[in-house]
Request: fold
Amino acid sequence: METVAPFKEVIDEIKESGGDAFRYCFQCGLCDTVCPWNKVRQFSIRKIIREATFGLTEIEGENIWRCTTCGRCPERCPRGVKQIEVGVSLRRVASAYEVFPASVRSARTARASLISEGNPLQVERSKRADWAKGLAVKTFSEEMEILYFAGCYLSFDPRMKKVAVATADILNKAGVDFGILGNKENCCGESIRKIGSENVFKDLAKQNIKTFIDAGVKKIVVSSPHCYHTFKNEYPEFMVNFEVIHIAQYISELINEGRLQISNAYDKKVTYHDPCYLGRHNDIYDAPRDILQKIPGLELVEMVDSRSNSLCCGGGGGRIWMDTPKEERFSDIRLQQSKASGAQVLVTACPYCITNFEESRLNLEYDDVIEIKDITEIIQEII
Reply:
């Protein structure tokens, strides 16, 4: 039987999150024309907004959980409807009722792990700095130039640990005085907020903010666009402001300032994927390309759906923790686009994108077709 939240509860929740903007929708359908879901199945964010206007949204099914918060629909909307905020509000209502479809149950496991261990991957907090063992990586202290915030996936996921190591190697070779917080670091909380667990997000944010202030943190370099977005755009809700910079921006600065020298060529054809939370959400398109264009031998080619039209990998909005059928994975389409570009290497700058692309490479049997690299892994090879 379908579960429909009470009219007033839905409306109140949406107003608290996104104001009355959702009522401005005049059902033009432009949001649906750019939604990546319509590349793999029929889906209508327009319909969800329409139902939400009357407080009649069905919260038990899959639809309110499909949105990856990629940012394409609000960018296209002529009326300023806050589709992402409306969707998150509906998820908060569903979470309050503990109503979750089967595909979302793994996200509930991630939530439990965030509460107990400060990460979504069910790994003991004490192992958060294990990626740095044997490396010249110190514990952060107030006199240091920057805090490097590796984030959850780079701290625990075997594939993504390579990116953390590459980043530390680059910072050391550039002479950057940096440190990490180790097991004092918590998840930034971005994804858990997007699946409606607002209280868990607030707890994680408050713990991180206290840790940053106590440690004397002023400048934070991050590897994940999701951490970047959260620290820069959402933590100010708690009346704090830290200087936040994504590693791609920072590497570009280091190269331009002469602190980081490129010593070798990279003789491959490369295409760059714009992560949603680096590109559309934060307008960072040029820094990664500027880096790649400075590398001798590297030929940069663009895929279709690049820059502001970039196709979402499917991992945002907490969907990195949800189950997606093979035939509905945006990342498969993105790898097919990268192959069509003639590139030998697909480069990006987001742990969710890399995780999904690596899985799609297996699904499509593209092992010998294309490599998946974080931008730091390429830089590590040539300095």
Summary: The chain has a mean pLDDT of 93. Residues 198-215 form the longest helix (18 residues). The longest strand covers residues 146-149. The chain is about 40% helix and 10% strand.
